[in-house]
């Protein structure tokens, strides 16, 4: 996953994540496929149609139209059921990942495209624009469409057996979290030596989350003004109308102020595009929901802890590949706060899982593993102490507390014997 810094790239990415976009695209493709047969008609001899038996194309198109409409309706209802299941078992924020799932979008869009292809083909046949030669072209295209739909349908049926399951959603959240954090750690756009700059202030002008920052456009504006821009609020930050989100080194006119504000997209919800913390937040939310009294599923919380360790571990491994010195000199952005990242990941779990011995032990082991990485060590130790304090306050049995203290390897004095595992 590469962090997008151009507004148009971001808009295209947002559109491609919408089901209607792919459905419309496949629909246009299906209509064009049906109509192209009329253009190729002069190239096909009339006698060839009788040899192939292309008169059957009318019946095939009728069957295809009725069946694809039913399949598309069934697929949409199944997706809605999967959305509801994911909301009830994980978190409403994770349901958006199912909406943007490319496999589901391609399958449903293909069924809708095949339906419209057959519908346009039937209408064209009834109006007589094909003729005998056009029928053979339409027949050949219909065979290709049928084979394609059958292959997609078989894959879709296999995929439906996993759609909406907790482990499937966890896989997706973990994947996007790793991609976003890896992109953050390897990107030259976040300056680890960030310092606040004084200058003309740019206010947010709206209330909501910063979803996207157009760094390319900011750099262009700054170069044209022979100045510099300091971005003060990262994507994912919740801002008010009067909050200062950037500072510039020159006195801009009204047009430049409007252009600078347009570089920041502010919306009602957070977006994963430039917000590497969001994926970790989703994982923590799923764990907290699993630990709620109504669900009481510590096993899912334990699995989430393991996934968070993988996310942070794999992402940190990419830190050595950071491309230093490529940050545009006229644009400065704050680096990701690791303290905030660890707070997002472990505070909800240690708070909601404090009364569960199994979850508390897993949390201590996970933080011990992360502490082996130098950049994570201070945060891991702090959260290990907080988690141990919370758990000791919730656990009532002295034996449970003693077992938990033995698992807190990270907090043991140097040289003390440490248990395995």
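Sequence proposed for the structure above (421 residues):
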């Amino acid at each position: 996953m590469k962090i997008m810094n151009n507004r148009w790239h971001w808009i295209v990415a947002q559109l491609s994540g919408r089901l209607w976009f792919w459905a419309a695209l496949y629909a246009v493709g299906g209509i064009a496929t049906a109509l192209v047969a009329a253009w190729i008609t002069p190239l096909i001899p009339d006698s060839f149609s009788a040899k192939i038996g292309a008169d059957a194309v009318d019946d095939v198109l009728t069957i295809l139209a009725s069946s694809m409409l039913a399949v598309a309706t069934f697929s949409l209802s199944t997706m809605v059921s999967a959305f509801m299941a994911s909301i009830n078992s994980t978190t409403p924020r994770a349901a958006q990942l199912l909406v943007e799932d490319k496999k589901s979008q391609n399958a449903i869009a293909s069924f809708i495209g095949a339906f419209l292809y057959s519908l346009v083909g039937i209408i064209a046949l009834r109006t007589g624009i094909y003729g005998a030669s056009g029928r053979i072209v339409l027949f050949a295209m219909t065979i290709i469409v049928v084979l394609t739909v059958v292959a997609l349908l078989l894959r879709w049926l296999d995929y439906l057996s996993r759609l909406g399951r907790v482990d499937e959603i966890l896989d997706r959240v973990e994947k996007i979290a790793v991609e976003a954090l890896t992109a953050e750690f390897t990107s030259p756009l976040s300056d680890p030596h960030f310092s606040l700059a004084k200058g003309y202030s740019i206010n947010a002008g709206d209330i909501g989350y910063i979803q996207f920052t157009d760094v390319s456009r900011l750099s262009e504006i700054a170069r044209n003004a022979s100045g510099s821009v300091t971005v003060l609020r990262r994507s994912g930050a919740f801002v008010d109308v009067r909050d200062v989100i950037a500072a510039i080194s020159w006195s801009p006119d009204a047009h430049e102020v409007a252009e600078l504000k347009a570089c920041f997209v502010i919306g009602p919800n957070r977006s994963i595009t430039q917000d590497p913390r969001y994926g970790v937040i989703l994982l923590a939310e799923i764990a907290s929901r699993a630990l709620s009294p109504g669900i009481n599923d510590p096993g899912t919380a334990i699995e989430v802890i393991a996934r968070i360790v993988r996310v942070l571990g794999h992402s940190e491994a990419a830190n050595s590949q950071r491309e230093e010195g490529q940050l545009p000199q006229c644009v400065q952005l704050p680096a990701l706060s690791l303290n905030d990242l660890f707070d997002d990941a472990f505070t909800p779990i240690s708070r909601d899982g404090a009364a569960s011995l199994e979850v508390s032990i897993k949390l201590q082991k996970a933080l011990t593993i992360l502490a082996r990485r130098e950049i994570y060590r201070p945060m891991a130790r702090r959260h290990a102490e907080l988690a141990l304090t919370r758990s000791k306050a919730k656990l009532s049995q002295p034996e449970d507390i003693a077992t938990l203290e033995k698992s807190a390897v990270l907090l043991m004095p140097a040289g003390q014997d440490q248990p395995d595992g």
